[in-house]
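[Q] Does anyone have a clean structure-token version of this?
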Amino acid sequence: MDKIQALRAFVDVAESGGFSKAARRLGVATSSITRLIDSLEASLGTALLTRSTRQVTLTDAGAAYLEQVSRVLSDLDEADGSVSDTGVEAVGPLRVSLPVTFARLHLSPHIASFLLENPRVSLDIVLSDAYVDLASERIDVAVRIGSPASQPQLIVRTLAEHQRYVVASPEYLERYGTPHKPEQLSDHQCLRFNYQAGPQRWSFLRPDGGIHHEEIHSRLAANNADILRGAVLDGLGIALLAEWLVRDDVQTGRLKRLFQDYQINPQDQNTCVYAAYLPNRRHSRKVQAFLNFLQWHLTKTRLGSGLG
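[A] Here you go.
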């Protein structure tokens, strides 16, 4: 019995829920899959699967074994990929984590182009506005928006500048008045992006060099920028949003930009779009191919202007 082949057959049967489905996925005869599973169970001395005429389910031992085997096979594939992916051509599976709205606007339109340019790479996209743990989630590279300075365990590459606008709809401003100084925000409905627990402050660098911090209390908070953009467009309040998200809204007049003489969120919150990856991905051709591709498109759309 080829143990690795048997383990892959077991995982495919467990994931697909049947021997014939697994056989089709692997391109072999159903009888071959059956013999591999029978040999595997015999070598272990326990049943991994419960078979019936309608379905195949895992036994308790099979469920525990599947979790460990999946991890072993993933490590093996990763080891194989780390060797083959250091050559001239990008090769192998690439698992990427991106913020939801950023991916919709700046990656989704270009996925086909990336895969056409890198025919030996397969792309697995994980969308999350949270900071995922790269090692435990098996992420090859994460694209993030924030300050990368506090992540010494990761390799960081800046992809683009990131500016924020304070915006509101013309209808909201007509109804409640236009604030001309950040201190006046306490008299308005502010919409909050939930990137941290507890109080949230918007910071403003004044033209005279002084900094004003305004603590934001909101009736509406969300951890997704698209939701906040929609709420601002509906006239529900004032929001602090990425320039690349609301640029078109400001240019067309759907939203008004406030406090244009101020620098928004300066100092440690003066953030960028950056990529982070573990040191063992330093020489990965597929990681570098993806980052070069993404940065080229960000520069093309003016988000990455001024970056090399």
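[Q] Thanks! Anything notable?
[A] The longest strand covers residues 92-98.
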